[in-house]
Amino acid sequence: MSTIRLSLARPAFTLAVDLALPARGITVLFGASGSGKTTVLRCVAGLERAPSAFVQVAGEVWQDTAQQVFLPTWRRPLGYVFQEASLLEHLDVRGNLEYGLKRVHKGRGPGAPTEALDAAIALLGIEALLARRTQQLSGGERQRVGIARALALQPRMLLLDEPLAALDHARRQEILPWLERLRDELRIPMLYVTHAADEVARLADTLVVLERGQVQAAGPVAQVLASTDIPVVLGEDLGALLEGVVQEIDTRWHLAQVRFAGGSLWLRDSGLAIGQAVRLRVLARDVSLATTPPQHTSIQNLLPCQVQSLQPDSHPSQALVQLRCGETVLLARITARAAAALQLARGSAVWAQIKSVALVK
After folding, report:
1. Using an 8 Å Cβ cutoff, are 262 and 343 in contact?
2. Looking at residues 43-55, what average pLDDT do you find?
């Protein structure tokens, strides 16, 4: 585990975080602009010095104010990826990558830096770009080069500060699969800053929600997203994240059935393979409820569930219902009048009618 405890006063807020993060996978720091996400990254990197802090990564203490320990940035084995890759225009891609190797720490063996660079090139799929000048790269290609440069440093933690924020939609879709590959294949922890809910759903293993410097929620991404305690933060993007496996392909109707720990759902087949692991997103606004088994309906995805909680939404006309479907939690956003008419209460048996399912992986 990595431990990050920070306390830092800002004019607009006081940053106060106490996090224990997994040793691998992507931890997303999520929140609105000004919530303290980038400040956390800068403190972890040593670019900003919190007056009260304890930062330990892979068993090594990078900062401990109680013991007067502070490693400067150049001594911290980390990689940092910014919103825009700052590539040297007078060098080609290979030159940029090799220039970055000068920061690699000593004592790792004569072949280690080169091996790490070759591995990063293969992982990011940039072999065909090595001879190109940086001016010939698209925004997505520049970011892949920037990430490869950071990985060539053999970091013990990778920090990514809104790496897709400067890209248009097409370039974002181009680079997302490479970020998924990092998550699945790298054996180091990654801290990823974003305020985009779709990036959370697609990339996060662990989710930390920040608001005005305070941690509002932290934990496994599916657990946090299914919580009704933070709807104001996620707004219209509130919903459940499901991990499943493709169980069946209906070639006649071009549909795929995904089995998860609570049932199965049909969705549009986009070239999926049986046995493929996928992530599904079910937004609360796309779930309606019935107290009897629906019949003669166009909605294909119907799940028997039990009401776990019922509470007012951010607008008084709306109610948020948390549902337990087998081992899976779903959310439904319905009108308060409908909740009253159905006499919903904790423990009520209902049918969840899922109007739309989004494939996010």
Report:
1. no
2. 95
